[in-house]
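Table S2 (continued). Query chain:
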Amino acid sequence: MANMILTRYGARPLDFFLRKEDLTSQVDGITDAFLTGDPYVAGSLEVYLDGVLQNAVIGYVTEDDPTTGAFSLGSVPLIGQTVYVHYNYQE
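Corresponding output:
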């Protein structure tokens, strides 16, 4: 059995790593679609809009394709707003 770590997402193998990224450069005031720098583990994506964690359960964040890093927000961020993400990825 692989070594495991308990996270708020449940038990994950230790070969998963946490990445934090600033995606503010992708904010154009037109689109709600974004790409992370790497594929993310499904269910691990946390999106912060202006420092506020967006809730995926009520539709503020949709994980469109974790294998490509694609996700979308429930509304279009305005120019000047910040978008930061935290997610697990695997090497």
